[in-house]
Automatic annotation (TrEMBL):
Listed CDD domains: Sigma70_r4
Residue span(s) of domain RNA polymerase sigma factor 70 region 4 type: 114-165
Identification of the protein by name: Sigma-70 family RNA polymerase sigma factor
Organism: Lacticaseibacillus jixianensis
Top-level taxon in the UniProt lineage: Bacteria
UniProt family annotation: Belongs to the sigma-70 factor family. ECF subfamily.
Residues annotated as domain RNA polymerase sigma-70 region: 27-92
Pfam annotation, one family: Sigma70_r4_2
UniProt keyword Oxidoreductase present: no
Keyword annotations of the record: Sigma factor, Transcription, Transcription regulation
Amino acid sequence: MALTETELALAQAAIAGDRQALSQLLQRRGDYLYRTAYLYVGTQADALDVIQEATTKAVSAVRHLREPGYFYTWFTRILIRQAQAVYARRQRETSVAAVPERVAPATDPVVALDLGQALAKLGANYRQVLDLFYYQDLSITDISGVLGIPEATVKTRLRRGRAALRDVLGGDYNG
């Protein structure tokens, strides 16, 4: 997630303590941040809560960001940690049978529901990389940076996640 020159200048100002610059940075890629949060938590209300919590944490921690060019990667990591906390809390509160509403790239609602239910059954590590790769269109390198794991680990989780998804859906699933 490369920053434009304007975004880089805003990131430097945000690190220096300019809250208005931080706000502008977050607004510039608000759609991306919302989609990321939504993919993890599955509801609009929870996604907005995640963004709010992540922003609150970012305001207090932005001065510790060493490299302004990695602002969005840094913020996305905060966002994902917050989303995982909300998701885990909600999983404890709801029954195992309840499946969170999820966005799916499929145009057929039945396929989208099946895919959403199948993704919910996967482990968090697999669901995380599949969400970032397929729903957010991040490259393996970007996913590695966002999650703070080696690229080889991302590739392994993608491969194993696809296999697990195929097992959950059934090997010959066509929709």
